[in-house]
Amino acid sequence: MQHAALFTPVTLGALTLGNRILMAPLTRCRADADHVPTELMAEYYAQRAKSGLIIAEATMVLEGNSAFGGREPGIYSEAQVAGWKKVTEAVHAKGGKIALQIWHGGRACHSLLNKGAQPVAPSPLPITNDYTHTPEGKKPYETPRELRDDELPGIVEGFRKAVVNARAAGFDAVEIHGANGYLLDEFLRDGSNKRTGPYGGSIENRARLLLEVTDAAIAAWEPGRVGVRISPLNSYNDMKDSDPAALTAYVAHQLEQRRIAFLHLFRGDFFGQQKGDVLSAARGHFSGPIVSNGGYTPAEAAEAVSGGGLAAIAFGHHWISNPDLVDRIAAGATLAEPNGATLYSPGPKGYTDYPTLA
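Above: the chain's sequence. Below: its structure in token form.
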């Protein structure tokens, strides 16, 4: 067996995993028009059930916050819960474990995807370095409406209800999406959060909403079933922060107090614009399991878990094109690369039709 360190059991909170090769959340836009998970999605995730833990794609906690062309899943309706239940049952039937990433798109949403509703954010600052896909084609991101302080309890309640629904749908855990330029991350980083008051200014204030959501999730389930993902360096969605290491250290320290199941840290920047060592900042303030993500090779991943203080590695794009990624890593086999043209297209092509080694 190649990279043997990745094939030892590990405990993340209440979860005991058979290996340390996790599946990172990957938005694929195969839900139906009402954001209900489909039978095709159940097949896709079941194909990947050998992962130590599947972290399912970003899933809307509140209606009217679509950011991916209208086909990302939700977890706020009974139909969505029923759809996800088919997914979790398919994964569990193959012996796998699956967590749901719960999410609010924030300023990455667009009115053309949400019945004319203006996107919301901590501050009225649009994403300026990219375009989004809408029913009318590519469009610039819109200037979001600044959320009032008195609206934020409703956001927290949306996340709490999502945890309740995730439990009902049969998930093994939830992961709170505080990364990659979506709403909770927009509050965290000072490049996107220019507000004053209890949710702006200092790191302590900017982290308040994420921690309130985390507390609500813990209250709705238990700390050992709740993970949190952050990406302090990632410039995706026009994001930046003046002190990513200090932000990481504070959030990690606060999550340490809450004894969550794991901290999931995207270690770098998709575009290489921002650099720094956020892993060390996290390790210095969080003694629980840390899952890292961001361009790991199998060899680097094995080294990181054997001597680098990490509990597991979440692989991303290689799970798309290698449904048997665990077997391929064990065999030292070549990993297939995904077809970029079918990442978000409807149907099975480029989704459930990638071959296995066998």
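The longest helix spans residues 152-168.
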